[in-house]
């Protein structure tokens, strides 16, 4: 089916829903479903109406070219309109792309130190703080769920829940290996070291998304320990949940309450299981795709942060920004994420054509 056929079908369906809802003959059980579909199609139908209006305007301008007095004006307006029409068409094509059902979900962020010892842990902490500042700039709620600290301010691993509008839609491109190149504070010789941290962004699953059978869980309780745990280690409040069918293990010990730690651990477990299901489906659908943009493949190095040169390079789209400080404080992270979204959209559009 051509995009033009899709435009026509969407516009016709939108008109059909509008007339049915306005007629008052829709049964109660179907009304909510039809209203939702109508609301989802409305922005696409409006964009199609704008495109059709622009095309009509173009035909009128072409007719004006035959009038010597109007020719210069018509040519100037045609030139502007010919630049605008492809943008309108692409905008509708993007709106028509299949939606990722998880895009509107909240997210669980997991950052772990990789190769590089203490320097990797320090970088993991900086990445975690980068996402915390970015969330604040976008008006999202950032809730730290669990942090395993090292002695000098680094994080072996850290988990957070991020809540807000389109959280997963924007942060899903952050999953992968983040590499850092710089002179560590602990390096006396001034040599540049390379270390890494891994980031996982999981769509936060609801209970309706993932059903977990209690008999598939082994739940152990123990005393919290390590930095951040001293104030709560007098009781068995820490919780370790093992999902027996998959072997996934989640440990939660930040709260003083065993009940709260279990609830948090279940949120993380549910999201990891949901992510596993999505990854399996994505791998099946994208077996022939060359692009890694948006794949969430956490075994791939996706980005390098080179501090001596002040640059951040995203290897998936060959994007380099010389503003590492602004990226690390969250201020310029959109300048990396927006091109990643555009590249993903372009890749998916090419598959449909």
What does this structure look like?
The chain has 353 residues and is α+β, with helices and mostly antiparallel strands. Helices cover 46% and strands 21% of the residues. The protein contains eight helices and eleven strands. It has helices at 3-23, 28-64, 71-96, 117-137, 167-171, 258-285, 324-328, 334-352; strands at residues 107-113, 141-149, 155-163, 176-182, 193-203, 217-222, 238-243, 248-252, 301-306, 311-314, 319-321. Strands 2-3-1-5-4-9-10-11 form an eight-stranded mixed beta sheet. A three-stranded antiparallel beta sheet has the order 6-7-8, covered by helices on one side. Strand 7 and strand 8 (248-252) form a beta hairpin. Helix 1 (3-23) crosses helix 2 (28-64) and helix 2 runs antiparallel to helix 3. The protein is flat, with a radius of gyration of 26 Å. The protein starts with a helix and ends with a helix. Residues 227-233 and 288-296 have low confidence and may be disordered.
* Low-confidence segments: 227-233, 288-296
- Reading the helices and strands in chain order gives HHHEHEEHEEEEEHEEEHH
Strand content: 15-25%
- Compute the number of strand runs: 11
Radius of gyration: 26 Å
Question: What helical percentage do the residues reach?
Answer: 40-55%
Shape by Cα distribution: flat
Structural class: alpha+beta
What kind of sheet is the major sheet? 8 strands, mixed
> Total helix count?
8
| Mean pLDDT over the full residue set | 85
The span between the termini is: 9 Å
Major sheet strand order: 2-3-1-5-4-9-10-11
């Amino acid at each position: 089916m051509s995009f033009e056929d899709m435009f026509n079908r969407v516009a016709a369906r939108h008109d059909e829903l509008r007339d049915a809802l306005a007629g008052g003959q829709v049964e109660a059980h179907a009304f909510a479903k039809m209203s939702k579909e109508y609301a989802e199609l409305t922005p696409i139908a409006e964009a199609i109406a704008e495109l059709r209006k622009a095309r009509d305007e173009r035909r009128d301008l072409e007719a004006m070219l035959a009038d010597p007095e109007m020719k210069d004006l018509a040519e100037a307006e045609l030139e502007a309109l010919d630049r605008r029409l492809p943008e309108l068409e692409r905008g509708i094509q993007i709106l028509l792309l299949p939606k990722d059902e998880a895009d509107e979900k909240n997210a669980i962020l997991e950052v772990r130190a990789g190769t590089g010892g203490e320097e990797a842990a320090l970088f993991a902490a900086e990445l975690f703080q980068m996402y915390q500042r970015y969330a604040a700039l976008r008006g999202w709620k950032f809730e730290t769920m669990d942090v395993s600290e090292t002695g000098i301010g680094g994080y072996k691993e850290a988990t957070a829940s991020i809540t807000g509008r389109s959280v997963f839609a924007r942060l899903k491109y952050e999953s992968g290996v983040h590499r850092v190149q710089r002179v560590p504070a602990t390096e006396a010789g001034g040599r540049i070291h390379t270390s890494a941290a891994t980031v996982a962004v999981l769509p936060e699953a609801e209970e309706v998304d993932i059903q977990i059978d209690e008999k598939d869980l082994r739940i152990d309780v123990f005393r919290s320990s390590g930095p951040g745990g001293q104030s709560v280690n007098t009781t068995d409040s820490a919780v370790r949940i093992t999902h027996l069918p998959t072997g996934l293990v989640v440990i939660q010990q930040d709260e003083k309450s065993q009940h709260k730690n279990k609830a948090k651990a279940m949120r993380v477990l549910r999201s990891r299981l949901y992510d596993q299901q999505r990854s399996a489906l994505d791998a099946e659908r994208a077996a022939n795709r060359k692009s890694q943009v948006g794949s969430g493949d956490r075994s791939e190095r996706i980005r390098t942060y080179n501090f001596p040169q002040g640059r951040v390079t995203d290897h998936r789209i060959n994007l380099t920004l010389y503003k590492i400080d602004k990226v690390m404080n969250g201020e310029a992270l959109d300048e990396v994420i927006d091109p990643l979204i555009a590249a993903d959209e372009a890749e998916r559009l090419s598959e449909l054509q």
